[in-house]
Amino acid sequence: MDEPGSGGNVVRYYCTAGNGMEAFLINEVKTKLAAEDVCQIPGKVLFSSSAKINRVSNLKGAERLFLLLKQDSPVSLSCNPWDPHRNRHSYSVDMFKKMFYFCVKQEVSRVIGAGLSRLLGWKADLKNPQLEINVHLSDDYCLLGIPLTRLPLANRSYIKITGLRSTTAWAMASLAHIQPGFRVVDPMCGVGTILIEAAQEHKDACFLGVDIDEAQLQKASENIAFAELENRINLLKASSLVLPVPSATVDAVICDLPFGRKFGSRIDMAANLPLILTEMERVLRPGGILVLLLSPQLSCLLKKLLIEYDTGPTSNPETKPQTGMQNCPSSSRSPSKKQTFQIHSGVKSSPSQETKLQHSLPFTVSSLKHQATFRVSLGAIDGLIHKYVKTDCCVFRDVMF
């Protein structure tokens, strides 16, 4: 890898980022680009770096990348433009506000275009411009910049079929702190976005995607082939309720649990969350990391479940102690060794297995220790990324196949 300063002179940039992604992007520019003078404003991260432009344009947590021309405070108005509208109804004020912002946008574009024409003799071309200048205005700041890429950085060239937003998938993978030799599982992989983002960043790890939906696995297979990652990402059709993976053998589990309208009729995620969580916990080794993307409702449910696990079962006091319990073995190995998955080939979870597992509630004390929660925008809705670490002292039920 090139040295951070190999690009020559220090250049000032800014990136746009989805709500909640700013912290991930700040860490990325500091780590990958040795960025200096890093600062954050809502939805944007400003930084200086001497790294080559091809490295800067390879940022994974950013939406768009700009060359910063000018940063300033917003222009103060000499009078209050709202005075003539104080006594109007709320809908009229709202309409005026929308029209006001629209007019400001048009006026700013006109003024900048006229100024460049006077200074440089350039001619404005709104349909096919050779150079685009962006002005970001808010009540607190004004940014003037030039976009450095035609397409957003979030549009990955190596992903054919889009699923979870690539920036969010990358952020989840970054929380897993994947090391060489790690074995990483996504038990609800969908089209494979999380696995692909993780594999692009970590060349010496092994990845497994599991999904019960044949159509999703087919799309994931196409994506993996398109990204040329077939040799490092394996796919398996199985239920997340009964994973065909030995206990305490996985270094990281990363999963976007389906929620929202798209998945509302397909699976009762709230009812199955305790079962899914138990399976994820079972396959994780002590010290392993669990990263989950949840809806606000599922996030609250997960917190409640883990509190109940830690304080003991309360829903059914007559439940007898579970049999078939075993202590998690303490696993330690050299991270430099290449790891592979031991999968029970051809084994699929039957309905009777899943029903048996459901009837075995309540669960034992959880070994998952909460590390952090991040609220991120997914577009129309927000999601919450939870990070947990499996502690060394844990007790769980092994699942037999």
Layout: helices, strands, pairs:
Elements: E1 11-16, H1 22-33, E2 36-41, E3 44-49, H2 53-56, E4 64-72, H3 90-120, E5 134-137, E6 142-147, H4 166-175, E7 183-186, H5 193-201, E8 206-211, H6 214-226, E9 233-237, E10 250-256, H7 261-264, H8 269-283, E11 284-294, H9 296-311, E12 325-327, H10 351-358, E13 368-377, E14 382-390, E15 395-397
Parallel strand pairs: 7-8, 7-10, 8-9, 10-11
Antiparallel strand pairs: 1-3, 1-4, 2-3, 4-6, 5-6, 11-14, 12-15, 13-14
Terminal Cα span: 45 Å
Overall pLDDT level: 80
CATH class of the largest domain: Alpha Beta
Helix/strand order: EHEEHEHEEHEHEHEEHHEHEHEEE
Structural class: alpha/beta
Residue runs with pLDDT of under 50 for 5 or more positions: 89-97, 261-266, 313-338, 345-363, 395-401
Report the biggest beta sheet as strand number plus sense, adding barrel if it closes: 7 strands, mixed
Shape: elongated
Strand content: 15-25%
Query: What is the fold named in CATH at topology level of the largest domain?
Result: Rossmann fold
Count of helix runs: 10
What strand order characterises the main sheet?
9-8-7-10-11-14-13
Instruction: Classify the helix fraction into a percent range.
Output: 25-40%
For CATH, the homologous superfamily of the largest domain is named as Vaccinia Virus protein VP39
**Whole-number count of domains:** 3
